[in-house]
Q: What sequence folds into this?
């Protein structure tokens, strides 16, 4: 977890107001891997638990700055739930734990030391564009899913 009090962004004048009722995935909207993950969640989240925000948006940039992360050259996605934010492998495992089977089984990797988990995460994050590609512009949600994007 990032070191901030729950819902601390609500008191930050640089962060626009947003509906934070439910888990939110903040992701790189031009990264093919990240956008593919969001597309997978959209297709399979039948209960519409998750919402999404690109790091390129005004809100995404403000949230990243609030948590002391680089909003332009970011190498992590954020998972925000109940006013708390996680990043890197903690974010991935928290998100997996809120998904449908078999994804919650991935939470077993919480028992690995964070430096091991984050080391693997950082390797993929550094190389994601060369390994998976980069879009020319942010993902544009299907009109049916648009309300799930902040």
A:
């Amino acid at each position: 977890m990032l070191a901030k009090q729950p819902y601390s962004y609500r008191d930050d004048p640089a962060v626009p107001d947003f509906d934070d009722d439910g888990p939110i995935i903040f992701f790189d909207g031009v990264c093919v891997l990240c956008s593919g993950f969001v597309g997978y969640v959209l297709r399979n989240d039948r209960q519409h638990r998750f919402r999404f925000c690109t790091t390129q948006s005004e809100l995404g940039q403000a949230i990243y700055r609030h948590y002391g992360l680089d909003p332009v050259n970011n190498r992590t996605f954020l998972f925000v739930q109940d006013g708390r934010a996680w990043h890197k492998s903690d974010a991935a495992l928290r998100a997996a734990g809120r998904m449908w089977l078999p994804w919650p089984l991935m939470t077993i990797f919480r028992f690995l030391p964070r430096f091991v988990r984050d080391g693997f995460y950082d390797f993929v994050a550094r190389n994601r564009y060369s390994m998976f590609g980069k879009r020319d512009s942010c993902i544009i949600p299907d009109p049916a899913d648009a309300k799930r994007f902040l």
Observations:
- Helices lie at 32-44, 58-66, 88-97, 114-132.
- The beta strands are 24-27, 51-54, 78-81, 84-87.
